[in-house]
Structures are given as structure tokens and as C-alpha cells.
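User: Could you walk me through two proteins back to back? I'd like the raw sequence and the C-alpha cells for each, with a short line separating them so I can tell where one ends and the next begins.

Assistant: Of course. Protein one, sequence then structure:
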Amino acid sequence: MRTERLEQWAGLAGLAVYLVIGVPTVYLEIVVGDVTRGPFWVWLLCYVGYAAAMLAAWTSGAGSRINPGVHVTVMMGCGAATVLLTGNHGVTPILLVFVAAVAAQTMSVRFAVGVAIGNTAVVAVSVLSHGLGWMELLLSTALYAVLQAMYLFTAWNDQRERIANENLAVAHAELRSASALLAESSQAQERLRIARELHDQVGHKLSALALNLETASHRVRGQGAADDVERSRLLAKDLLADVRAAVGNLRSRPPELRTALDMIVRDLPRPRGHLTVADDVEVDERRITVLIRCVQEIVTNAIRHSAAANLWIEVRAADDGGIVLDARDDGRGTAALRLGNGLTGLRERAEEQGGTVSFDGRDGFAVHLELPPAEQSTVQAPVQVGAG
């Protein structure tokens, strides 16, 4: 939230500077007239075109069909024309500093440096065209060159910090996924150990006690004693049945899916995770492993590529007893869907269990995963890639 507020304030500050540069020229043109070097409508067209290109550069994402270099080039051209057509040198070249900042955020280092050099040349031409001296030329070019360099290094530092934070969040998600799998495996092994101990020790001794009591019921004399032995025999028999039921329950107890997935999704810095797991969802050890790994990949993909603020994950039971997982984010999506190693691995995990998975990048990024019932999970099924 703090980063978003800083970005909003930076955008408002940029808008204020843009208006401070252009509004006086518009006002003087209306009041005095002929304040630009050339037709005013050409200056105004370049001035408005600069703003439109900057807005397009900031709002376009990875899914945009227009290369961000086009936006930066249009910004640079319109900004240079605005500077050269302005009647006085003034502070209009600040527009070119913003071009360098946008280039640093969206383009390669070489491209951004080239933009800064080109902008500095435009400033020099503007100074010379206004008939200013060599001292003004040196001061102006040095000033705007330093300002652009500061923006470039600040933007590159922000990018490195953002990449480091993304890598940290991904590593955190992977660690929590491994912890969830380890915890579930440890719990399953502990339940199995307890079940074996109950069966091997308590169960066998209760069986022997029931047999001994049944033998004693045939040998005991006296009605009162016989009744006591019979009640003890029945009690031992019931207790043996309870132990067998407890052993069966421990062996067949389903893993805790909600707890395992919540370990991965909760406390994400960005995007914020929203997890919903229906109460009627039951999984075995194989399917919980698939779901944990798939959720891990969905979270990783959202952190690295979506630029989303929210990620929603819903797990519910299908009508046939299978499991359905729907995940979507509110990020930028992608116009051309290409599966990397992570999404390919997600697809292969679903395929191994006989499931299907589909991806949709038209509105954010969405994943639809279906796993068959446990008794059918070893059957191979085709995997669909396309609209979800």
C-alpha cells in the first residue's frame, strides 16, 4: 500500500510539473499571441501527444501489443518538438527528463542511455537556437544530463529492489510449500505409526483377553461369577472393536488441505492472497501433493509476471467426487499465452493424475484445474491449454 501511494504521489507531481510547463504558454498565446516558434497548433499537438504517449507507456503492460519503445520514441519526439518550438528556453526541457525516467522503467539500459544522450543533444540545440552563450550551454546541458542520470540510476535501483523482493517472495512461497508437504508427510507417518502400535500391541492383547474370557466363561461355576465373566468378555469385545475402528480412522484420515494451502497463500506481500476451500473437499496424499505444488506455481507466477494486487484461489468438490481448483488475479494478463517451465510442470502434474488444466490470460491470468476422484486419479487424460 505504501508503494502504491508513493507511485500515486509521483504521478500527481509529474502531472503538476507538466501543467506548470504548458499552461503559461497556452495562457500567453491566448492573451498575447505568437509566443511559440512556429504555428501554435503544432506546439499544442506535440504537447498533448507527449502526455498521451507518457500515459500509454505507464499503463501498458506485458500483454500490450505495442512495444513500449514506440511509446518512449513518441514521447521523445513530441517532447523534443515541444522544447524546440517553445518561445523561450525556460524549464521546458524537464519534459525530456521524464522521457529518460520512462525509458529506464520500461526499456533496456542501452536504450535508456541512448534516450538520455539524445535528450541532452536537444537541450544543447535549444540553447543555441535561442542565442544563449557558451556558459548557458554548458550549465543547461550539464544540469539536465545530471537530472537524467539521477532518474536512470534511481529507476534501475528500484528495479533491482523489486526483482530482489520478488525473488524473496517466490523463495518464501517455495519454502512454505515444502514445509506444508513435509508437515503433511510427517503427520501421515505419525498417524500410521500410532495405528500400527494400537493394532500390534493393544489390539493383540485385547484379542487375547477376549479369548481368555470366553474360555473362562465355560469353566466358571456359579451364576453370579458366570455373569461377571460374560460381561467382561462383551466389554473386551466392544473395546477391541473400538480400537480397530480407531486404527482404521487413523489410516484413512484425509490430509488437511485448507491448512496446507493456507501456509502458502497467507501473508503474501503482493499480490494479496484470498483462499477459499469448501468443507466437502477431501483429498488423498497424492492429490494434496499435486494441489500444493500447483498452488505454489500459481503464486510464483503471479508474483513474477502478473503485477497483480490480488490473487483469488478457490478449491471445491466436483459433482463426480473430483476436485476443482480455480485461481485468478487482477494483473495485466497476456495476449499471447506461452507456457514456461513452471506452468508446463503444473500441466504435467495434472496429467499424471488424469486431470485437466486450462489457462486464460485475457482478463488478468486465470487457471482452471480439475482432478478426477481418487479411484480414477491414475487414468491419463488430455490437458487443455486455452481459454478457461
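----
Protein two, same layout:
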Amino acid sequence: MVSQPLVEVVDVIKSFKDVKAVNGLSFSVREGQFLALLGPNGAGKTTMVEMIEGIQFPDKGDIIIDGKTWHNHEEEIHRIIGLSLQETRFTDKLNVRETLSLFASFYGLGRDRVEEVINLVNLDEKRKSYVVNLSGGQRQRLALGIALLNNPKILLLDEPTTGLDPTARREVWSILKKLKKEANTSLILTTHYMEEAEQLCDYIIIIDHGKILKEGTLDQLLITERGKKILEFTLKEEGIKPEAFPDNNSFNVQWDMDKQKGNLELIKFESQLPKFLNYLHTCGLTLENMEIRKLSLDDLFIDLTGRHIHENE
């Protein structure tokens, strides 16, 4: 018997004036599943999550959470969700333990749960530090701790690592991976970091302009591209423009003039590589460096949209 999804989003539409921020999205999240809504800024991710959180309401469509709706079961839903927004402001002159204790009191939770959460988000050494003295990564872990206080069935994180340095980002990832292993919490994560979706989530929905472009597990998303490789290269010549690469049936070079770096897809790179080197020679160009790698979600997004996911930032 298939259990009912914990979260169901059915044909949801949300507009602001003439802009459809969310344009007919449908998806579901099962118990224990980590799902990523992946897309660039302005794709509709935050609007969709805010509707799941009950901050906004759809113009059309339905959102069902644990068999309930916000209109009829607001209090029950509040008890089973935890959320962390893109930016959370705290009282600067409270320390970490005091801040968590304040939010724990809203749920009738005591000191034991506060201590558990401090340990969970790795803020042991900062428990007496004022919020104003925390780094960006420590503040984000505090926000995550507040979201986890009530042992939520559903955790909603909106761009939780935006603006963090790579080390702080990975600290947040480590906490979430531990949560996935030890708890049965479901996660809906919005992100524009491809690696974040790959690292954390079982299921990925790529959205742009409020619509789903493609969805599935990482393997499912890339299965049609399996076998392809990306060759990235630089040249000894300087100031190269895209026109330096004439049309060719075998090679479609994507040249970044600002970075002076090119790439192209190869299927059988062992046999195609010598032909590519000959192609460069024919163009009067000399290879300086090259790297061959597997296709990524970023490559898939470019195939779907014709642009990089961070292009508008």
C-alpha cells in the first residue's frame, strides 16, 4: 500500500500583477524525503515555499500538508513544520542559548531540547556568545537550530547557504546530512547551488519562470546524458572571440570571451579528442590546458535554458 505524501502541491498558480511567479507547479514530498527546488533567482522558488509555509496563498491550486490545508488546520500544521527563511534577524544582545530558549518557549519546550539542538547544530562553544558576535555561518546554524526545535516532520529551508563561504556552507550540509541519517524529517530546500542539490537531496525539481523544466533523482536527470563528457579548455592565444571557432559538424564550441575559456560536449572523447586537436590547428589556435569531466546539473540547466543558473545574479 502506497502511503499518502506528506506534502502535495497540485497545479499551483501565483501571480504578482502581470508576472506569474508560480505557473502551474505540481509535486509531492514523501516522509523522510529530501527534495530540492533548484533554479536561478526569480524562478519562483521562494514564492512556492512561502505558500507551503502559509505565508502566502495560491491564486489557484491546492497545497495539502499531512492531509490538511492552511485554511482549516493552521495550528496543526504549525506544529509539524520548521522553517528558515533567506534572512533571519535575531536580538543582538541575547546569546545563543537565550535565543534558542526564547523560541523553545513558544512550543512549551524545556532546557533539555535546547541543549540537544545546540549540540546538533555544532554551537557548543558559542552557547554564551551574543548573536551580534556570531559569524554568518554561525547565525545560519542558529536559524537552522530554531527551525529544528519542535522536531518538525517537514523542514523548509529557503536558500540556507546563500552568502556563506565554502567552509560554512559545508558545515550546514553536514548538519542536514546527519539529520537525514538520524531523523525521519522531510526537507524542502530551495537553492541555486547545483552542488547543494546534488549533495543533500533525493529528488530534484529544476524550475525557471515558475515552471518545472525537469525533475527526478540525480541519476534520472542525467541518464539521457550518460556517456557524454565535457571538455573544458584554454588557449595560448589571447583575446579570442567566439567567431574564432567556425561551424563544424563534430564540434559546437561554447566560448566564454570574458573568462577566455571554452567547452564542448564529447560522447566518445578517446576518438574525438585527436579530431578536436586537429580542428583547433585548422582554426589556427593552440591548446594550452584542458580538463575532461562528467556532465553536471549546471550543464543540464544550460541545455534546458541556454544560460547558466547564476547568469542573472
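The longest helix spans residues 166-182.

Let me know if you want the two compared in more detail.
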